[in-house]
Amino acid sequence: MSNPLEIVSAVLVASLLSMSVPAAAESIDSANSGQKKFSESWSLQNPKNMVSQSRCGAMPDIKCCIANIKNCFEPQNLSKNTTVVFRIHVVGHEPTYTVTKNSGTPADEFYCEQAFWEALPFIEVGGATTNADCEFYANQVSKSDQVSSRKLYSEAHPEIRKKYVVIHVIPISVQLLTSIEREDLQSLKNLKAISINNLKSPLLSEFRKEWVAFLKTEEYLFIPRRDILKEADHLVKKYQSLFID
User: Fold this and answer.
1) Mean pLDDT of the 108-126 span
2) Is 132 helix (H, G, I), strand (E, B) or coil?
3) Are 123 and 65 a contacting pair, CB within 8 Å?
């Protein structure tokens, strides 16, 4: 006669084996599931009817360079009546800049500097050596009528008392890839705060350079939305100590 405990055990094992295991919920990264990820509030779906955008056409290199920088600039972020001037140097294939005027604060310089870094992956230069001034004004007409990222963030986080600047985690220039819309890139979910004391931090420089390196791939005319969000998750986690929030 069979042992009743053996019979019960056999039935339980058979039942468990016959059960179908539900598929895991779609996510970019299943590791550290208890920790909120940057990408959690983003849709993973690419927009419909995506068409690669032209960046400069026949525009000369230096004008193309400045046009790209201005496209990433939010004049509403500058202090009132502020003017900042960058001298853009194009030597070979790598543009650089020197700050020649800043009538405002270190934060104002940061917002202009950030526009340069956000545009850098998509600046195409042909190798000729040239220089030109890129001027930033607080009253410069914006391509968007929406509230500045600085004001948008401060209204959502009144509890933060220390002085800070606001950075787009995913660069605004990614809109040229057509896999993420500008509305998403300029929304609250794409913003992080950095203390004024960290504006010259090596971590900020490394964070920017990693984005440039990631976006300057051979396939940069289109990078899937999922890949961009995965990289954002990676960089936010890696440079977590850089951000206030």
Assistant:
1) 85
2) strand
3) yes
Residue 110: its H or E element? helix 106-119
Measured CA to CA, the distance from residue 80 to residue 151 in angstroms comes to: 14
Q: Kindly compute the dihedral angle of the four CA atoms of residues 78, 84, 87, 88, in this order, to the nearest 10 degrees.
A: 10
pLDDT band at 121 (very low <50, low <70, confident <90, very high): confident
pLDDT one-digit tens code per residue, 18-36: 333 333 233 444 444 455 7
How many angstroms from the chain centroid is the CA of residue 154?
18
Whole-number Å distance between alpha carbons of 189 and 42: 8
For residue 103, give the H/E element and its range: none
Distance of CA 87 to the CA centre of its chain: 24
Cβ neighbourhood burial of 140 (10 Å; 0-12, 13-18, 19+): middle
At residue 195, what is the residue type? S
- pTM of the predicted structure, to 2 decimals: 0.75
User: 96: which residues sit within 8 A by CB, 6+ positions away?
Assistant: 88, 89
Cα–Cα distance for residue pair 95/154, rounded to 1 Å: 33
Q: Six-digit token pair at 234?
A: 């990676």
